[in-house]
DNA sequence: CTTGACCTTCCCATGATGGGAAGCCCTATC
DNA sequence: GATAGGGCTTCCCATCATGGGAAGGTCAAG
C-alpha cells in the first residue's frame, strides 16, 4: 500500500512516516516503479507500535529502544521494564514540577480581585523575586 | 553594568538576555563606547520578572503580556488574572495527560516480571494497538 | 607583550511536528 | 487529446527556548 493508506491504517501522518525513515527509526521500504513508498502489513504494525509508544510519552529515542527490544525475540523483559521505569520517573518529576507551578499560581490567582483595579498580587509576586540566582533544572538530554 | 553582571544579578543567561532583546521582549539597552550592552538596576529588575514568570511556566508570549501589564499602571487586574487562569488550565490539562500515561505505564510495569525472560506485557501493549486512528490533541499555539 | 576574561555577531543544534512549493504520476472527465 | 484533481516525491522553512561554539574586538593584570 502507498504512504497515504499506511498513514490512515497506522494513525501516523505521512510527514512523520517519512521523517521516521529519514532518522533511521524505521527501515526504508520498497518502492514502486513510480518511486512511491510501499508498505506491508508488518510495516504498518511497526508504525502503530511507534504511535502507541509516542502516545505514552516515550521519546523517539526511547521508542527506538523499545522497538529493538520488541523485535529481539531473545530480549530480557528487565530491559524493557528499565526503559519504562525511567520514563515513569521522568514523567513524575515533570508532573511534580508543574503541580508546584499550579499551586503557586492558584494561590496568587485566588488573592487577585480580578476586577477593574490595578492592584494585583500576581504581578507583585513576579516583580518581587528577591532571590535571583537559581540554577535552572536540566532535562534529560 | 555589563551583560555578565546583569546575568548574575538576574539569573538569566547572557545568551538569553541577547535573545530576549532580539525578539523584542526587552528593549535594546544603552551601549558603552566598546559597544558593550549596559544594564541599569531597572533593566535587571525586568530580567528577574521574566525569569520568575518563566519559572512558573509562562511562555515568552505570555510573559510579554504580563510584562506589559506590569508596566501599565492603569491595568485592570482582571487582565492579569485571565492570563494566569488560562495558564493554570493549560498546566492542568498537561498534568492530567501525563498522569494518564503514568497510570498506564505503572500498570504495565507492575505486570512485567522484569527478569531474564522475554515475555513482556509492556511490549505486548505497544504491539497490540488495535485502534489506529486517533486524532492527536493539539497544544496551545 | 602576552594572557585571560570579557564582550560582540553569526551560525548551528536540539525534538517532534507541520506547512508549503515545485514537480512527477495516474485516473477520470470533458 | 487536454485538463483537472489527487497522491506521491524531495527540499526548505517554522515552531519554542535554549545552549554551543567560532571569529574577532577590548581591556586589565602580569
From TrEMBL, chains A, B:
Primary location recorded for the protein, binned into one broad class: cytoplasm
SMART domains associated with the record: HTH_MERR
InterPro entries linked to this entry: CueR, DNA-bd_dom_put_sf, MerR-type_HTH_dom, MerR_fam, Tscrpt_reg_MerR_DNA-bd
Originating species: Rhizobium lemnae
Annotated ranges, domain HTH merR-type: 1-69
Pfam families the record matches: MerR, MerR-DNA-bind
PROSITE patterns: HTH_MERR_1, HTH_MERR_2
Cellular location(s): Cytoplasm
PANTHER family in the cross-refs: HEAVY METAL-DEPENDENT TRANSCRIPTIONAL REGULATOR HI_0293-RELATED, REDOX-CYCLING DRUG-SENSING TRANSCRIPTIONAL ACTIVATOR SOXR
Name this protein carries in UniProt: Cu(I)-responsive transcriptional regulator
Keyword entries, A-Z: Coiled coil, Cytoplasm, DNA-binding, Transcription, Transcription regulation
Coiled coil ranges: 81-108
UniProt KW Transcription regulation keyword: yes
